[in-house]
Design goal:
The protein is an alpha+beta fold. It is built from six helices and five strands; from the N terminus they run ββααβααββαα. The strands form two sheets. The protein has a three-stranded antiparallel sheet. A two-stranded antiparallel ribbon has the order 1-2. A hairpin with a 6-residue loop joins strand 4 and strand 5. The longest helix is centred in the last third of the chain and has 18 residues. It starts with a strand and ends with a helix. About 10% of the residues are buried.
């Protein structure tokens, strides 16, 4: 058994998929790999995700310590920016491999 943040997983692969699995988490992490993005920038880069789903997935990634949410309140309008944490950056090689595999599928198997 593997434990992470109070949850138990039967193996290391299920732990990884429990953290980054689902339709949108990996996509969000991919878009944040090289830059900080505001909510609307993320939304525009993923036009098929609903606002509710994006908000829930961002919250889950933040709770797992993979992304950080920085709120700028010095002047209106409110500005919120998302970026990878140091822990989240450890996923960059994995996310890049997933993206490279997707490119390979398009090039070789379409």
């Amino acid at each position: 058994m593997h434990k992470f943040r109070g949850k138990e997983y039967p193996c290391c692969a299920s732990l990884t998929m429990g953290i980054i699995g689902g339709k949108w988490k990996t996509v969000i992490l991919f878009h944040l790999m090289n830059k900080k993005l505001r909510y609307n920038e993320l939304r525009k880069s993923m036009p098929n995700v609903t606002e509710r789903t994006l908000s829930l997935q961002l919250k889950a990634l933040e709770e797992d310590g993979l992304i950080k949410r920085k709120v700028y309140t010095s002047k209106p309008p409110l500005k919120v920016e998302y970026s990878l944490t140091d822990f989240g950056k450890t996923l960059i090689p994995l996310i890049q491999s997933i993206a490279d595999w997707g490119d390979s599928v398009v090039e070789n198997y379409s």
